[in-house]
Design goal:
single chain, mainly alpha, 0% strand
Length: 418
């Protein structure tokens, strides 16, 4: 993964960067399992997953690495993410999953609606005191750039690309909006992860019943304990074989299906069915779910979900490394628009959750299934427990399906608001 070209960053070799990220993760997990008074108290207030995200972000912010020049996120999202999805869905109990009830879908759709109405409302709010920030004409019209954010905040990169092709913002505007998208979304992810450590307190405030989530988690834990064994070298090799066989199958079929859909059924591109990444996620997840009905499910006893969690945490570190806080000072006006947009999404989400008494798990995963998609939703779900990762995956797939439609409607509303 050594990269090409010149960079002003202190570390430019991806092999070195990867080693640093793994050392950071090792330090975090070593200290989080420490019995020392300081560390026990520290991790009472600071979630482990939050540090796995935040510390790598300092590498980019401080100029130690320059994430856009790195291929680590690409490798983590295309190779390790599908491998983790296979391993984390290997022991899922679909009957228990169904018993989670309709609240997860309600919160997910609320999150989508929050993005759709948040865009035009943020334009109206900002135009009341700084209309020049949301103005522009032709390809430089701000709403055109915001349409690409709507795509990625409801579905993902494929939906963002669709909005770019439909509304054609200028390259300069699109570049600025990509930065707004990443920074605002990653700041929200920071707070989502912070809330994981306070989820019980939040649930008490909402008077939420999280018993179905707890039951699923306990059932998966009991199953894992019942078949647990010390893994042999053969076990570990089989686990890796299963994980990367599913990944390979996902890539192989995605490279066939996506171009076929693009060429023969272009109308289906509105559902992101022409996206290779979409099919990669769907196929890897399906592969894991199918194996959950076979004897290979027992590989959970040798640590399949733990291996999947290792891949997930590497992805978390790679996502964190994309964050650069300094970027906020370059286009403060656009970041304010994006921040207001995100606040509308969050306020609506919490209001509905309060009304229907939904647990924080559904809020966190429902939001990130929209804003982040398959790369973030299973990460957040796994922060509660590895066995819950498939909830994030399935909601993220739904986000892909709704992404282009929701983003297109949002763009039209933003055009009208402008």
């Amino acid at each position: 993964m050594e990269q090409q070209g010149q960079s002003t960053a202190l570390i430019t070799n991806d092999a070195v960067i990867f080693g640093v990220l793994i050392l950071i993760l090792a330090f975090i997990f070593k200290t989080s399992s420490s019995q020392g008074r300081f560390w026990k108290k520290f991790y009472t207030y600071v979630p482990t997953l939050l540090l796995c995200y935040f510390i790598p972000s300092l590498l980019n912010t401080l100029g130690i690495v320059h994430e856009p020049d790195s291929r680590i996120y690409f490798v983590a999202s295309r190779y390790l993410l599908p491998a983790s999805l296979v391993l984390l869905t290997l022991n899922i109990d679909l009957k228990e999953f169904v018993r989670l009830g309709p609240k997860s879908i309600i919160i997910f759709l609320t999150a989508t609606i929050g993005v759709v109405i948040g865009g035009p409302l943020s334009i109206l709010i900002v135009s009341s005191f700084a209309p020049e920030l949301v103005g522009g004409a032709g390809p430089d019209a701000v709403w055109r750039g915001m349409a690409t954010i709507a795509g990625t905040w409801i579905g993902g990169g494929a939906n963002q690309a669709a909005m770019y092709e439909i509304f054609k913002p200028s390259d300069q505007l699109f570049s600025a909006m990509v930065t707004v998208d990443i920074v605002v979304a990653e700041i929200w992810l920071f707070f989502v992860l912070l809330g994981v450590g306070k989820s019980k307190e939040i649930d008490r405030f909402f008077k939420a019943d999280g018993s179905s989530i707890t039951q699923l988690q306990e059932k998966m834990e009991n199953y894992s304990l019942g078949i647990a064994r010390i893994p042999s070298l053969a076990d570990l090799m089989v686990i890796l074989g299963i994980a990367f066989a599913g990944t390979a199958l996902g890539h192989y079929l995605a490279d066939i299906i996506a171009p076929f859909v693009e060429e023969n059924y272009p109308a289906l591109s509105r559902l992101s069915l022409n996206s290779s990444f979409f099919w990669l996620v769907v196929i890897a997840t399906t592969f894991g779910l199918l194996l959950s009905f076979t004897k290979w499910r027992n590989m959970e006893g040798a640590g399949a979900s733990k291996m999947g969690s290792v891949f997930i945490y590497i992805l978390v570190a790679a996502i964190g490394m994309k964050m650069d806080i300094k970027e906020m000072v370059k286009n403060p006006g656009l970041f304010m628009v994006g921040g207001i947009w995100m606040m509308i999404h969050v306020i609506l989400l919490f209001a509905v959750a309060k009304i229907i008494k939904a647990p924080y798990f559904f809020i966190a995963v429902g939001s990130k299934a929209n804003i982040g998609g398959a790369a973030s939703a299973p990460v957040v779900a796994a922060a509660f427990h590895p066995s819950l990762a498939p909830v994030g995956v399935l909601l993220a797939v739904l986000g892909y399906a709704l992404g282009t439609y929701g983003a297109y409607l949002c763009a039209l509303l933003m055009q009208a608001a402008s």
